[in-house]
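Weekly sync, protein design subgroup
Attendees: M.S., D.O., the rotation student, P.L. (late)

Item 1: inverse folding check
M.S. brought a backbone from last month's batch and wanted to see whether the design step gives back something sensible before we order anything. D.O. pointed out we never logged the input encoding, so this time it goes straight into the notes. Structure tokens as presented (403 positions):
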């Protein structure tokens, strides 16, 4: 079939609401991709954004070929991210969605003020959606467009489970009474309580389970120094966000005080943010978030930078189905992937589940694009006001604390 005939048939079938028939003609089996030829023209026709009641933010990009792409953005400042994505529509509508990296550069460099969580979240969600479109257009998963598989499955961590074989988890430090250690220098009693609580987990699970400990940037450097030494005997898998990533020199200094790998990245954005982390040896495991750090395009570059230091990436993921699916595409195309956070999580917003976790690993998605299909009825049922913005306060004196 000629290119002109294909496009003519595509247009007529979209008008008749018969995209399934076209799809079946060009594929041996049914997928949700309306495939096109490599020389066919395709244009973005619409951008939509959706804020859910749990603060997840989704972006949907539609095209004149009947192919849609989905992505996710920052869940903090949800309304700002959703509005910002629509503003990008002034540039993106009418453009060829297949020029994914070109559009990343245009969106990033088209803004006078660059970087930061909101700007990069907007780029991230749109980038995911464009890759989703491109994979669907050519009928392959995104990782096939980025050099092909570097592995067949991705190790995941979340909830230790014999049925799924997940044998890796992460916990937070807890003092007496379950309190997060947030004081500048915690008491010896509370430091010991954190160590004893972690020791109890190690005794419960043994050395066959990897257990990371996430300080979540809420611990101050003085306390962090004490906790590092107290926890080392119980072999944490890694120390995550041991302090805020705003002062990389402080993190680098703490890294020198322990043999346990430090991990960070969920509040670091773009290749430029991770450059300083790598150059100063502030962390040995990078945890960029595909919703915040710049999308699939940028995470692949960050992984390449980390590879030069022999460091792995373990993508951050507290979010929804696009976040997990996009992270798995990264796992499928970079050599230095380590493990996927909450990769054992299933999502009720999907029309069908991702390949099931087995022996602690999730097979890479094989469907085109991100490898998922959003159930739009389920998603729309969750649209609403995001969770309120709430700072955290010290129970003892009422001062503001990190969390």
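Designed sequence read out in the meeting:
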């Amino acid at each position: 079939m000629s290119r002109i005939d294909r496009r003519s048939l595509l247009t007529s079938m979209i008008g008749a609401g018969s995209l399934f028939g076209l799809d079946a003609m060009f594929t041996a089996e049914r997928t949700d991709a309306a495939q096109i030829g490599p020389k066919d023209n395709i244009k973005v026709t619409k951008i939509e954004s959706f804020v859910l009641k749990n603060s997840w933010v989704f972006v949907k990009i539609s095209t004149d070929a009947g192919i849609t792409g989905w992505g996710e953005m920052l869940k903090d400042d949800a309304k700002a991210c959703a509005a910002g994505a629509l503003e990008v529509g002034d540039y993106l509508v009418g453009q060829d969605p297949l020029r994914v990296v070109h559009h990343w550069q245009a969106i990033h460099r088209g803004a006078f003020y660059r970087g930061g969580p909101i700007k990069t979240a907007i780029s991230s969600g749109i980038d995911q959606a464009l890759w989703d479109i491109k994979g669907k257009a050519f009928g392959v998963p995104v990782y096939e467009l980025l050099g092909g598989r570097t592995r067949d499955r991705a190790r995941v961590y979340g909830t230790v489970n014999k049925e799924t074989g997940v044998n890796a988890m992460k916990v937070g430090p807890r003092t007496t009474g379950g309190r997060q250690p947030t004081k500048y220098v915690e008491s010896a009693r509370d430091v010991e309580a954190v160590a004893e609580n972690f020791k109890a987990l190690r005794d419960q699970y043994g050395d066959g389970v990897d257990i990371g400990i996430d300080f979540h940037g809420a611990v101050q450097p003085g306390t962090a120094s004490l906790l590092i030494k107290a926890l080392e005997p119980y072999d944490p898998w890694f120390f995550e966000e041991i302090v805020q990533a705003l002062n990389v020199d402080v993190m680098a200094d703490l890294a020198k005080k322990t043999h346990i790998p430090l991990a960070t990245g969920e509040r670091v954005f773009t290749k430029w943010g991770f450059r300083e982390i790598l150059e100063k040896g502030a962390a040995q495991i990078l945890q960029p978030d595909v919703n915040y750090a710049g999308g699939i395009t940028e995470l692949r570059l960050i992984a390449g930078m980390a590879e030069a230091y022999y460091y792995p990436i373990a993508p951050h993921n507290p979010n929804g189905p696009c976040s997990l699916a996009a992270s798995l595409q990264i796992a499928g195309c970079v050599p230095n992937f380590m493990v996927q956070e909450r990769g054992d999580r299933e999502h009720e917003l999907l029309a069908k589940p991702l390949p099931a976790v087995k022996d602690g690993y999730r097979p890479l998605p094989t469907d085109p694009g991100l490898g998922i299909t959003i159930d739009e009825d389920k998603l729309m049922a969750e649209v609403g006001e995001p969770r309120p913005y709430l700072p955290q306060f010290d129970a003892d004196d009422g001062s503001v604390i990190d969390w």
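Discussion: The radius of gyration is 22 Å. Residues 328 and 364 are 6 Å apart (CA to CA).
Action: P.L. to compare against the previous round before Friday.
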